[in-house]
Fold this protein.
Amino acid sequence: MNYIIRDDKEHETTAPKVKVIAPRKKFQPSYNDRQNRKIRVGAYCRVSTDSDEQELSYETQCEYYENYIGSHENWELIAIYSDEGITGTSTNKRSDFMRMIDDARAGKLDMIITKSITRFARNTVDSLMYLRILKEYNVDVYFEVENVHSLEANEMLLTILSSVAQQSSEDKSESIKWGYQRQFEKGKVYAANMYGYKSNRGTLDIIEEEAEVVREIFSKYLSGMSESKIARYLTENKIPKKNGSTKWDSGTIGRMLQNEKYSGDALLKKTFSIDFLHKKRYKNEGQKKMYFVENSHPAIIEKEVFAQAEKLIGQKRLTGSVHSVYPLSKKLVCGVCGTVFRRKTSGREFDTTTWVCRAHYLNTEKCPMKPVTETEIHRAFCFLYNKLLLHKTVILEGLLQDLQEIKRRDQCSHPDVIMINRELLESLKQVHFLTQLHSKGVISADIYLERRTALDKKTTELQKKLLSSQQTNKLDEVIGQTEKLLSILYERTKF
């Protein structure tokens, strides 16, 4: 055998040597950097409401930061960012806050001063997210109340402070909700932006000029005008809305017609929010308490008028048609497909009115029936009515005799409905009894099948007789209507 002799010394490795290089200077956050230039400082202030007291607080904050930053020789005031009257729970709608973040990203700021972390953000997630962004751009945030610099503090401390701020905001929100609930229980009404009224410390005062428009809306609606027509009327006459706009829409009119406050009553807590962080409001459909305050404030319209409008709206929803007020509604049927006609207006001044098959209106391929003008329908109705009036004896009396003859034959061929129901009940009892016998093993499967087939046949025949008898009852209704029509026509031709 051949052996290879290796020299171990040849393959020896030396241990790694580490040389520590001492720092030549200490890292200084930008707010302490005095080498080349002044520290560029911005201040952020915010008030939570738009009340007079809070407006004063806002002005005071701005003045304070101007003096505070100006008192430091090595500081340069870049801007005072402020969001007035906007909630702090979310940064989405704080425009100046976002402008401040953009300026920091653009390298315009070294430090941001704010009163406390509750002013910066009351949402823990938002607070940490934006503090991390600012840290990435070496921008410090100084919280005066907490006496904390974000670049010096660890994230655990910032998380705790942000969580405390969020909890404080939540407690405040719950306190406000509790206050509103107590006010609701006392019947206090708040509707600052409601057309026709102005809010006055828990009640509503009428604005007479707007109130006249409200009364006109209800009057036109009850006279047969639709929401869209009313909206067009107000727009064409340049009637101003609450915000000064003269453009009205059917949705606005519909909401006004359903607002019980115009009748002097108030339904409170119609909407609710999930929590203080999510500002989206949802319709209260029984999830939360509601409060109905009767005669809570002066009424613009009478309660009877509001009730009539409410009833009419309900009827239209039930029928699924906004044209149910017209005499011919649901009375015109398409001769091609059997679908009910609907009324349709066109033209700027609604001078063209037609009736169109619903199936054709939705899809022209389903029904070829073309629209018919209302004038043509009225002309045809008058023609047929006059013809019926002149020839009532031949047309209606002959029809009445035929209907009565059909009824007589049906009565002869079919027994009374009560007798049919009795036989049908007895047949069903026999089926039940037969099934019990089979399940207990008293009768065989063959016998059960034979007798069950006979009973099912008998039951089917009885059900046919019952249906025929029900049709006879409908025939009675038609005969009654024909007799009534004949009587009316005779009454009109007496003179």
User: Anything to note?
Assistant: The two ends are 146 Å apart (CA to CA).
